[in-house]
Amino acid sequence: MDINKFINIVKLGRALAHAAMLVYILGVLFALVIGSPFDVYKFVLGYAIVFTSVLAAGYTNNYFDVSIDKFATQTAFSGGSSILVQHPELQTTIRNIIVFLYCMSILLGLTFTLVFSYSWTFFVFVIIANFVGWSYTAPPLRLVYRGFGELVTMLGASFLLAGAGYFVAKGTIDGTFALFSLPLLLFGFAVSLYLEIPDRNVDRKGHKMTLVVLKGERFGFIIGGVSLGLATLCYLLFSMFRVFEGALNFSAIAVFSSIPFVIGVWSLRKYLIDPSTMMTVVFRATACIFLMWIFLDAYFVYVLLT
User: What phi and psi, each to the nearest 5 degrees, are found at residue 184?
Assistant: First the structure.
């Protein structure tokens, strides 16, 4: 294969596929903190399922958004890619890669289910997660064009990724994880809005029905900040009512989670004062959410080691 072609294919996948590991590990670590045993083979194979699925979703979004990517400005977290616009000859290759990755993720899910004698609900979970990733931009559902883009990003960036890790380590998805995932869902919702803000004009031209397209950038900043505030409130309530047993200090988590909230409020204020700062403040707000996931991973590791 031509080296430039290979490089473009790799770039198209984008490094954000690796960021999925932060949330996947978070689900694994939470299961370990509440008493599940660690199995390195389950961990590795589970992540292989997640990585191939997330990578496939990234390629899928780029493939089906190629018609509007020519109008987009790429940022660290959003903006699609101009690679397929500049190199349309790659489309057949990318389509084959997409099919291969989705098939690989589902096959690995089946292998995991059989090898570790898990309930078939795990395999169903893998199929649903892959279908959600496909359906964001791909037919027949094309959910982002029907007003469900935020829901898909919220579920994918939080519940499904962390849920996969929890499922791998715990062997089930239960009420404990459902409660734990509430602030994660709010972080995911905020991420979806911040990712949409720089793309508003492009998404409008492409007829995507996102909240930011319908309501504007100001609305995105406001609701993003509110979501981050509610996530902090969740952690405070977890601490006040001792929702989870064990050594987790949710007061400390709430204090740290207030940082993305403060940055979210600051981002709104900065944007209202000077709209030209939009790209900078969106980057900082989104980066703070990623830092929150890193903090949670690090804190859970600390709890396990002490």
Answer: -65, -40
Contacts of residue 128, defined as CB under 8 A and 6 or more positions apart, other chains included, come to none
Domain containing 281 equals 3-305
Q: Please indicate whether residue 237 or residue 20 has the higher confidence score (pLDDT).
A: 237
Structure pTM? Answer: 0.94
**pLDDT, tens only, 134-158:** 999 999 999 999 999 999 999 998 8
How many Å apart are CA 19 and CA 23, to the nearest integer? 8
For the residues 78-97, what does the mean pLDDT come to? 81
The set of residues, in sequence order, having a beta carbon less than 8 Å from that of 244 and lying 6+ positions away, is: 34, 176, 179, 180, 238, 250
Burial of 257 (0-12, 13-18, 19+ CB in 10 A): buried
Structure tokens at 272: 């209202």
DSSP label of 89: G
Considering only residues 67 and 275, tell me which one the structure prediction assigns the higher pLDDT: 275
Among all chains, which residue has been given the structure tokens 């990623």? 290
